[in-house]
Design brief:
heterotrimer; A mainly alpha; B mainly alpha; C mainly alpha; A: globular; C: mainly alpha; two-stranded antiparallel sheet; 28 helices; 2 strands
Chain lengths: 182, 102, 719
């Protein structure tokens, strides 16, 4: 089936590029790999009939967050990844933990009888999402807008060039709050 | 075997494992954040998959959209922190930034 | 007016001055003119209400009528206390006296206290004083009488010490307060004896109960003397009169308000109100104390040169008259004198204040010839002098005459002539020293040209009260004695049968007021055995027991002989009193105007007498030599006891404690510290170990979390 092929294509793209994100020693490379991962996920969304999310993923993640990440990478002036290679003292336990976690989740996925329903052809979701956001989800919606605002203010405070008389405490406080909100 | 819920969940689990590994190993704060993004995407994928195969509505989509929004907020603040960190310590290595311990 | 309306009016009369006090005390500084208009206008309203009540009782004309109302204040099992208001003729009289004088003093103070630093505070205190005084008058029970009694004491303390930054004023108000305490102690004792015996504080229940089942002689006399001690303190009777002259340290309006007109009258009012509670023994004490006080006050006033001090002793003397009237059974006459006296001494004090205001000295030898400078003050002062001296057609004559008649009747029936003689001498002396005061101050040539030159008549706020009081000093008697004129509409001897009847009626009707326990013969204290019906014993057959004349007018059914004695006494006393007054005035005129008698040479011939009088019979010195010294000695004794015994015990305890502590310290050091340090070491060691977990690296923490979650999952799956 062509749909299956498409799925496998996107899945492969996602997982492979995700692996590069993890494995790449160069942060810039990692960032560009992340671009492909996110794009792959967007494809999977489309495959799942979530047209709105696919577009949002592309616009917000790839267009916004990733650009932000790349800016951060460039501004911190360390194009190369972690300076010295420190052997496997950390990688091995981390790999074991990650594998075990995956194994656990996978066991759950395989071992559960999912109450799957019949799926028809995917329909357009934008209208329904819009309606839901304005009715049932209006409170979370407004709340999230507040969180965004707070994050924006927090980020601005953190980034601000420190005035001479300003002490470190204020900045640290702001950092703590911003971190908790996000 | 036709592509079903399990396939998507497996992809999601793989992404989660990779993200977790990145978070556990990367010393560069920015790279670490990328791992977090991977984990968030894995979770989102789960939401959308379940919405398609189990729930049938758009609730999963909406939650995923909220997660994207929050991810944006998180990225903004976290990257601001990274920049502040760089400005104060001259490095973005999370191992060396442990002043709160002392 | 209905009873209800009268009670409400009385309540308003009581509370308006309190309102004035509260508002002025807290917001006085913020009000325009510091709120003096508020105090004056509130007092004006109070005065109008008091006059309304007065008019009602005038119209009714029944001195026995009384209107009572109250609420249960305390209910503690067997002990109950009511807060109540009592309005009758005597109350109406007192209400008018207190509010009139207070109102005039308020007005006078507007001028006199002008520009004072604590102007508004002064008016607040005046309001507070008036409130307390009205409380005494309106209360219907001993308990609240005592409460307001003490409030008056406090108010007088505040007013006398108004210039508290002046050491003499501070000492004076302390003296007034402490002296009053001595009297109040006795007063309280008396109240407690009556309450223990009869289980009620209410006046008329007490009267009825005491009438039906009197206490045994000694105890009743003791209780009566106790109550009288309150009067001695408050009304400045010998030997507790020493505070009154010193209290002149307060502003002059205060002297007029407290010492001439109202506060000192409280004691007299109290005795008159509670007269049925006094037995012949205690009444004899009352009569003698009053007579002695009248005599002492008059003799001292003769030699004083300070105008205010002289007036103070004059007041003491007049109060002595009133108290003596109570004692000799002429209670109505005493109240009548209180009424007439309320106006002319206030007038004298305000007049002296006016003079002092003008010449800035209180020494009479520095005045003289002020008649032309201050005509209004002079004429009003002269009227007051004529009134107080007992010149016919002025109010003082009728009341003083009635008292002297009562005293003479008392002497003739009981062979106690001393009170009458003392009172008669005092009457002559009063005329003498009062005219001496007028002559020295207003007549003759100015002895100090400088002061005389600057003297001027006072502003209208000061002269209006003077004129008002002068008019009242003339007309207030109604040109009749207490028992035949208008006064008899208000005050008459208590009609005991009616009171008893009302009390038992109230008991049968089951009203709020509890039946006095003693009315049913359940008294806690021993009682006089009485075979015959009680009221018969106290009225008709009492003369056989030799007790009735002590109750004097109380035994309204006295026999014909009594009436005859009374009549004879009245005529005799009137003639004698006019004679001595005339004599006093004549001597005064000869001495200070004609110069026929030289005061210095008289004094020189009687150096000892002069010395004693000049030093006020050495009362202060006597107290200094006895009470102060005893107190000091007693304090020294206590100090020694403290040093030797108490300190010994304390130090011994200290030593013992130290020894014990040493042992305890050892145990602490080796046992307790060992444990504590052991715990510390363990915790520290554990901390050292766990500290390594805290790397400060985010990723390690995350790894621990992951590991723990996995561990938990696998462990629980395994289970």
């Amino acid at each position: 089936m062509s749909g299956d092929l498409v799925f496998y294509g996107f899945a492969l793209l996602t997982v492979l590029s995700g692996f590069f994100v993890v494995a790449s020693r160069n942060v810039v490379h990692a960032a560009f790999s992340l671009l492909f991962t996110l794009f792959g996920v967007a494809g999977l969304y489309a495959q799942l009939g979530a047209d709105f999310l696919a577009v949002t993923q592309t616009v917000v993640y790839i267009g916004g967050i990733l650009v932000l990440v790349i800016f951060a990478v460039m501004m911190t002036r360390i194009p190369r990844s972690d300076a010295p290679r420190r052997g496997l003292d950390r990688a091995v336990p981390a790999a074991i933990l990650a594998l075990l976690s995956f194994a656990l989740v996978y066991m759950v996925i395989v071992g559960t009888r999912w109450p799957v329903r019949e799926t028809g052809a995917p329909e357009a979701t934008v209208a329904e999402i819009g309606t839901s956001l304005m009715t049932r989800f209006v409170f979370p919606f407004e709340y999230v807008s507040l969180v965004l605002l707070a994050a924006m203010v927090g980020a601005a405070v953190l980034i601000r060039e420190r005035a001479p008389e300003d002490d470190t405490d204020g900045a640290d406080d702001a950092a703590g709050n911003g971190g908790m909100r996000s | 075997m036709t592509v079903g819920l399990e396939h998507y969940l497996t992809v999601s689990a793989l992404l989660f494992g990779l993200g977790l590994y990145a978070v556990l190993t990367r010393r560069n704060a920015v790279a670490l954040l990328m791992g977090v993004e991977l984990i968030l995407n894995a979770a989102n994928l789960n939401f959308v998959a379940f919405a398609r195969y189990v729930d049938g509505g758009v609730d999963g989509h909406i939650v995923a959209a909220f997660v994207i929004v929050l991810a944006a907020a998180e990225a903004a603040v976290a990257l601001a922190i990274v920049l502040a960190m760089f400005r104060n310590f001259g490095t973005v290595n999370v191992d060396t930034v442990n002043r709160l311990k002392r | 007016m209905s009873e209800h309306a009268i009670l409400l009016t009385a309540l308003a009369i009581l509370l308006l001055p309190l309102l004035s006090y509260a508002v002025l005390f807290f917001f006085g500084k913020k009000l325009p003119r510091q709120g003096d208009w508020l105090g004056v206008s509130l007092l004006g309203v109070t005065w109008l209400l008091a006059v309304r009540i007065f008019a009602h009782f005038w119209a009714v004309g029944d001195p026995g009528l009384r209107i009572e109302g109250g609420v249960r204040w305390l209910d503690l099992g067997r002990f109950t206390a009511d807060a109540g208001i009592l309005v009758d003729g005597m109350t109406a009289i007192m209400l008018v006296v207190v509010t009139t004088v207070s109102l005039l003093v308020h007005l006078f103070s507007v001028g006199y206290m002008h520009g004072d630093r604590r102007y508004e505070r002064f008016f607040a205190f005046l309001g507070f004083f008036t409130f307390s005084m009205l409380g005494i008058v309106l209360s219907n029970s001993l308990l609240f009488l005592y409460v307001f009694w003490e409030l008056v004491g406090l108010a007088s303390y505040l007013l006398i010490g108004f210039y508290f930054d002046k050491p003499s004023a501070a000492a004076a108000n302390k003296k007034a307060f402490l002296t009053n305490r001595v009297g109040d102690f006795g007063f309280f004792t008396g109240i407690l004896i009556f309450f223990t015996a009869y289980g009620t504080f209410n006046y008329f229940e007490l009267f009825a109960a005491a009438h039906l089942s009197p206490l045994s002689g000694g105890l009743l006399t003791l209780a009566g003397v106790g109550l009288f001690m309150g009067c001695v303190g408050k009304s400045a009777q010998a030997p507790l009169h020493i505070w009154l002259p010193d209290a002149m340290e307060g502003p002059t309006p205060v002297s007029a308000l407290i010492h001439a007109a109202t506060m000192v009258a409280a004691g007299v009012y109290m005795v008159a109100r509670l007269l049925p509670l006094f037995d012949p023994g205690s009444l004899l004490v009352v009569a003698y104390v009053g007579a002695i006080t009248a005599f002492l006050g008059a003799t001292i006033a003769v030699v004083k040169t300070d105008i205010k001090k002289s007036l103070a002793y004059s007041t003491i003397s007049q109060l002595g008259y009133m108290v003596m009237a109570m004692g000799v059974g002429a209670a109505s006459a005493g109240m009548f004198h209180l009424w007439t006296h309320a106006f002319f001494p206030a007038l004298l004090f305000l007049g002296s204040g006016s003079v002092i205001h003008a010449v800035h000295t209180q020494e009479m030898p520095l005045m003289g010839g002020l008649r032309h400078k201050m005509p209004i003050t002079f004429w009003t002062f002269l009227i007051a002098t004529l009134a107080i001296s007992g010149v016919p057609f002025f109010s003082g004559f009728y009341s003083k005459d009635a008292i002297l008649a009562g005293a003479l009747a008392f002497g003739m029936t009981k062979s106690h002539y001393v009170p009458f003689l003392l009172a008669l001498i005092a009457a002559g002396l009063t005329a003498f020293y009062m005219f001496r005061m007028v002559f020295l101050t207003f007549m003759g040539k100015p002895r100090d040209e400088e002061r005389h030159h600057h003297a001027h008549e006072s502003p209208w706020t000061m002269t209006v009260p003077l004129v008002t009081l002068a008019v009242l000093a003339v007309v207030s008697s109604g040109w009749r004695g207490p028992s035949e004129g208008w006064f008899s509409r208000f005050v008459a001897p208590y009609d005991m049968e009616r009171i008893v009847e009302q009390a038992s009626g109230a008991a049968h009707a089951g009203e709020v007021h509890a039946v006095p326990a003693a009315a049913h013969g359940e008294s806690v204290l021993p009682q006089e055995p009485h075979g015959e019906p009680a009221h018969a014993a106290a009225t008709h057959e009492a003369p056989a027991h030799g007790e009735a004349p002590a109750h004097g007018e109380a035994s309204a059914h006295g026999d014909a002989h009594d009436t005859h004695v009374r009549h004879t006494a009245h005529i005799t006393a009137m003639i004698l009193s006019i004679l001595v007054a005339g004599l006093g005035i004549l001597v005064s005129w000869l001495t200070y105007i004609r110069g026929r008698i030289s005061a210095p040479s008289v004094l020189a011939r009687l150096p000892r007498v002069h010395h004693v009088l000049q030093n006020m019979y050495f009362f202060d010195e006597f107290y200094a030599a006895t009470i102060y010294r005893f107190t000091l000695w007693f304090s020294w004794l206590n100090g020694a006891f403290d040093r030797v015994v108490i300190d010994g015990i304390v130090n011994g305890m200290g030593y013992l404690t130290r020894s014990l502590s040493w042992f305890a310290g050892l145990a602490d050091r080796y046992v307790v510290d060992g444990l504590v340090n052991g715990v510390g070491v363990v915790v520290q060691g554990a901390g050292e170990g766990f500290r390594r977990v805290q790397t400060g690296r985010v990723q390690s923490y995350l790894a621990y979390v992951c590991f723990s979650v996995l561990l938990l999952v696998f462990v629980f799956r395994a289970l």
